[in-house]
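Weekly structure sync, notes
Attendees: PL, DS, HV (note-taker this week)

Item 1: UDP-2-acetamido-2-deoxy-3-oxo-D-glucuronate aminotransferase
DS walked through the input record. Source organism listed as Starkeya nomas. Sequence as pasted into the shared doc:
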Amino acid sequence: MNSHVKTDLAPIPFIDVAAQRARLGTRIDEAVKRVLDHCRFVNGPEVVELEQKLAAFAGAKHAVACASGTDALAMILMAWGVKPGDAVFCPAFTFCATAEVVPWVGATPVFVDVLEDTFNIDPASLEAGIKVAKAKGLTPKVVIPVDLFGQPADMDAIGAIATANGLKVLCDTAQGFGATWNGRRTGSFGDATATSFFPAKPLGCFGDGGAVFTDDDDLVPVLKSVREHGQGVDKYENVRIGMTGRLDTMQAAILLEKITIFEDEIAARQRAAERYNAALKDVCIVPTLDPRATSVWAQYTIRLPHGVRDGLAAALQKEGVPTAVYYRIPMHRQPAYAEYPSAGNGLPVCERLAGEVISLPMHAYLDEASQDRVIAAVRRALGA
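Item 1 (cont.): predicted structure, written out as tokens:
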């Protein structure tokens, strides 16, 4: 590492929620006030309006708002009746929520490897995982492709494998909502899609929130029942096991304001990613975008040789530049998940990436001066 530069400049935000808040100005305050005035804090009119706007944005027939991205994943598995003995295939290079919901319903997560260039699920490893599941006496039931760091997974290949093996496709677009694959937005693929509105996401609220997207008319009433304690004709008739998975009306009101500027923010993220790529491609491995995809750049993640990352992070911290690592430990190596099966021989790409990746500041309000500070600091630290 070749960084000895010190700076008195203010630290650069990793994700700048405050800049977006300033842009929207009084609109957020007014939206919250409307909820405070009508006092319908649970299942208020803003929730239904948001569901309609989300579905229209994604190109899906239906959107069902819920309390978090994790609840969205769980609601789908519960609505489909996934159960003990079923295998659910997940990439091992993801946040724990993707796999966490599978044992909740008694099913078995089977971890598969990812592609080195896009970080997303490897179709060949998925096929290997299906063979492993069958050999263990499990019933292959669902695959959960993840749109990691903002880029959609290869829905062409995954869809074909799912069709050939009778799998349902539950897309996890918690990091990829707003991106496209072959010109179609995420939320319009597979049998159902889960997303998150956690504040750090490209479209985030001011707390927890999520949504399910589907074109399946019959699934929607089941999802809504699961979301409300498994209720039937009213809340005191329980026809299935459910949860409390409602989206708070206040968060829906906030998201209604944020979605109006979302496309502009996606474009700004793309410009920032292009500037990073151009400035850093000679000193590290920059992200690769599949030509069939667009990304919302939930994270801007570079790769470095093993043993370099921590020194870079320390050097950047001294210059007021934050970094993060997603993910140091792949799911199949996490203590809570070590007992579950994996495809192939140790998921070598996941293992390698876990020691190479580091994410730089990325958001829609990353101005060129701040980004140039990041770029210069990275290049200094890497001796370029």
